[in-house]
Amino acid sequence: MGKAYFITATDTGIGKTFIAAGLGFAAQSKGLNVGISKPISCGGIEDAVFYKNKLKLKDSIDDINPVKFKQPLSPYAAMKTEKKKVNIARIKRSINNLRKDRDIVLVEGLGGAMAPIKRDYYVADMIKALQMSCVVIARAGLGTINHTLMTIDELKKRKIRIVGIIMNGFDGREISQRSNAQVIEKLSGIKVIGKIKAKSSFADMVKQIQKQRILNTLTPAPLSMKWRGEAERERGGVRK
Ligand SMILES: Nc1ncnc2c1ncn2[C@@H]1O[C@H](COP(=O)(O)OP(=O)(O)O)[C@@H](O)[C@H]1O
Ligand SMILES: [Mg+2]
Q1: What sign has the CA pseudo-torsion 49, 51, 57, 60?
Q2: 15 CA from centroid of ligand 2 (Å)
Q3: Per-residue pLDDT for the chain (240 aa), expressed as one digit of tens each?
Q4: Of 53, 60, 62, residue with least CA distance to 18
Q5: Lower CB count within 10 Å: N or C terminus of the chain?
Q6: What stretches of the chain adopt beta strand conformation (E)?
């Protein structure tokens, strides 16, 4: 089964879709077959459309985004008026199916780790049920320490493996942007595996992902050995 990562964030609008699409694009550039899932959307199918267009996915919008709530609410709130239930077992089956024929699968959550999906059941509980490792997208600036530490705490409480944090929105305008990553790493014990600049074009964001080798953190050997660069090094006998 291909590697799968759950992309969560400290809030909504933090850059989950933008960066997950960038990670997917960078993986495709390495010759990997990428799968994307946005299991639950609330208020529109833009994320699935964005993924389908940017990654030229063959999967239908329904495959990428099976559960759609019309209103921009948490699923817990939307469920009440839209009379629709979230079936986690079904979501798990569809992600596992995707994993069977893809090298890497990225699953975007919704909102943050504590967005309620149903009563007493949050995004973090879904990550646990899916038995996935996760990546946390966090803001670069002031206030991010609070949000990131709280998010990590909820994930740790559920014994979810956190691969790393990607901080998004560096513009050099706040003094805290210079120290936030270091403080978060020190206080949480989780590595900041990437820093993305504010106002990046899609292509520029992908370049930052490549330059910072963020994918290498996500896909350690043996999968990464299939990758072109690694394979070349293998042939050259550099790798011991
Ligand atoms: N580093 C960035 N540079 C430029 N635009 C960004 C950046 N990060 C996010 N955005 C934009 O901000 C908006 C919110 O990001 P999005 O990925 O949709 O957040 P989320 O999926 O967490 O709700 C989108 O319009 C996205 O294109
Ligand atoms: Mg999104």
Answers
A1: negative
A2: 7
A3: 779 999 999 999 999 999 999 999 999 999 999 999 999 999 999 999 999 999 999 999 999 999 999 999 999 999 999 989 999 999 999 999 999 999 999 999 999 999 999 999 999 999 999 999 999 999 999 999 999 999 999 999 999 999 999 999 999 999 999 999 999 999 999 999 999 999 999 999 999 999 999 999 886 544 444 444 544 554 554 443
A4: 53
A5: C
A6: 3-9, 34-37, 40-42, 67-69, 104-108, 116-118, 121-122, 133-139, 162-170, 192-197
CA of 13 from ligand 1 middle (Å) equals: 6
Q: Do 240 and 59 form a contact (C-beta atoms < 8 A)?
A: no
| Whole-angstrom distance, CA of residue 103 vs CA of residue 216 | 14
Residue 191 annotated to the active site: no
State how far the Cα of 16 lies from the Cα of 72, in Å rounded to an integer: 16
Ligand 1: lining residues by beta carbon, under 6 Å: 9, 12-18, 168-169, 196, 198-200, 205
pTM: 0.92
What radius of gyration do the chain's Cα atoms show? 18
Q: Give the Å distance between the CA of 168 and the centre of ligand 1.
A: 9
One-letter amino acid of 109: G
Nearest residue to 162 (alpha-carbon basis) of 2, 1, 9: 9
Distance CA 98, CA 63 (A): 10
Domains, the chain:
3-226 (3.40.50.300)
Catalytic residue among 3, 30, 38, 195: 38
Atom of ligand 1 nearest to the CA of 21: 17
